[in-house]
Amino acid sequence: MLHTYDIAVEEDAATVGQPSSGVVLLGKYELKELLGVGASAKVYHATNVDTGQSVAIKAVSKNHVFRGGLTAHIEREISIMRRLHHPHTLKLFEVLASKNKIYFVLEFAQGGELFHKVAQGRFSEDLSRRYFHQLISAVRYCHSAGVFHRDLKLDNLLIDQHTDLKVSDFGLSALKDHVRADGLLHTVCGTPAYVAPEMLAKKGYDGAKVDVWSCGVILFVLTAGYLPFNDHNLAAMYRKIYRGQFRFPRWTSPELRRFVCRLLDKNPETRITVDEMMGDPWFSKGYREVRIEHKEFELERESRSRGLNAFDLISFSSGLDMSGMLGEAGVWEGVERMVSGEKPAKILEKVEGVAKAEGVRVRVRKEENEEGAELEGQDGNLKILVSIYRLTERLVVVEAKRREGKEKGAKFWEEKLQPELHRLVYKD
Question: Which residues does the record give as ATP binding sites (predicted)?
């Protein structure tokens, strides 16, 4: 059972690896040291003052969540983490809230990221197999629960006090409910060096198969000590991924090479599945499946809270938008965000009306957790992207950005579209 609480005190600034100010949150968790700082959160090591249990606490600014329009992602991550109960997935214990921040109390993996272990030297095949077994056990469990991680990488694999693996960070995960009518997912996300080629193609993809590809990249790094697809130029790296171009180090065994090639098969139709791994000679050696019963949970809300409650405000770990890396790259400027109480359909209707009146092409789009429109002039001298994100049940965030250096776009925005959107701004 998760609970929300008010906290009267905020933690002081701290340096990674150094002791914090010793603040006790709600008289329950004493902060020890800052473990890491990300774009959206700080993570602390803390202990339960009553039991002495070590936990990790992720602190997220509410302002970041509101400004970023991240409610849908947040809600989904909470829902997913609460339904997963596996020895190799990180546990979420509870959610705490203060006036300005949200705190997520998580299982503490004192061994840190697997990435740092590999950085000290590549693993033997036996040790790599041990960790890969644990990874696939967790992934197989997630897939059977209808959860696709979509951002599996060494940074998101943690090691606990028993040197066992814990899969973390489900901020980019998707559920079976999110697939479109074609049975595929379409949102481009993840970390560049780990993404599958079909995701780059932007034609839709199977969530289970892109997870298998990422697992293949992870196994390659464990045994080789370096990434199979790497280049200082992102576009060049994506071309290597798209073509499936990589080389094994000389010490890789023939059995492992065959297995990795089945994982990093650029054709998702012939790529090995998690179930098929059970019959592979390299993988099946010593593998033992962990049997866990699935527990379904409904997302709980506080009826007395206004706006976003603590369940709505879990940290979101953003991925890289790679939609422009295969020939449509561009630089945006003039980004503006506003809050509106209007329905997305009405906002899009207004955008379409303004665009058509000025002879501007408009294409409405609907992704898993956002709606929007792309506006483009007939002569290519205008390009504006409008995105709508759900903030609360009543409010949405409208984000508009135009392509850099497009003078006609700036004029259209300032004189036509911006005034109309400002009429939709929410007034409390």
Answer: 58
Q: Count of domains in the chain?
A: 3
pLDDT tens column, 30-86? 999 898 887 678 899 999 998 999 999 988 777 766 665 666 666 677 778 888 889
Residue 409 sits in a domain whose CATH number is 3.30.310.80
CA distances from 279 to 165, 241, 283 (A): 23, 26, 8
Instruction: Name the CA dihedral angle for 428, 39, 318, 218, rounded to a multiple of 10 degrees.
Output: -160
CA distances from 201 to 174, 250, 318, 321, 327 (A): 19, 31, 20, 13, 11
Tokens of residue 4, six digits:
């929300």
Q: What is the Cα–Cα distance from 373 to 342, expressed in whole angstroms?
A: 16
pLDDT per position as a tens digit, 234-285: 889 999 999 999 999 999 999 999 999 999 999 999 999 999 999 999 999 9
Mark the binding-site residues, compressed into ranges.
58
Q: Residues at the annotated binding site for ATP?
A: 58
Q: Report CA 232 to chain centroid distance, whole Å.
A: 23
Residues serving a catalytic function are 151
Q: How far apart are CA 181 and CA 370, in angstroms?
A: 17
Whether 348 contacts 137, CB under 8 Å: no
148 and 260, same domain (yes or no)? yes
